[in-house]
Amino acid sequence: MPKVTTETAQKMLQLINVTTYQGKLTYLMIGFLYQTRAGFSEIVSLTLGDIYCHGRAKKAVPIGEGPRKRTQILDAQARKIIDDLVVLQVQRGHRPSIDAPLFRTPSGKAFTAEQLASIFWLYQEAAEIEEGAP
Q: Which of 41, 75, 83, 132 is found 20 to 30 A from 31 (Cα to Cα)?
């Protein structure tokens, strides 16, 4: 996971418009990356069953595998965004399945680690440019 300061991460999250499906998805992915210090491949490997149970987001999520496996506690805002994402996916005609990837493109396909990395770098660059602006 790349090193990002708290200020840069906060600026990255402020740049995201969370009123759209893509914005909520991006906010959640970048928030997960920053909060958990997980790798891109660990984040995109999360399934709906890892994070959603009995009609609501779980309070804790398993991240990683093997000796690197750890539990991440989710705050209320992250759980609300997850709930909204699941509702949006259902409205788009995607059936919620515990094996389905949590982070899906608007077309319903799973993100790749490379796609997530490119989104992350794009927002990090924008945040650093904004921090440097007078």
A: 132
How far apart CA 23 and CA 17 sit, in angstroms, is: 5
**Measured between alpha carbons, how far is 54 from 45 in angstroms, rounded to an integer?**
21
**Which of 93, 92, 77, 86 has its CA nearest to residue 46?**
86
With 0.85 as the threshold, say if the pTM is over it: no
Q: Determine contact, residues 59/42, Cβ cutoff 8 Å.
A: no
User: Which stretches within 1-134 are classed as H helix?
Assistant: 6-14, 21-36, 40-44, 48-51, 76-91, 113-132
Contact 39, 16 (CB under 8 A): no
Largest CA distance in the chain: 48
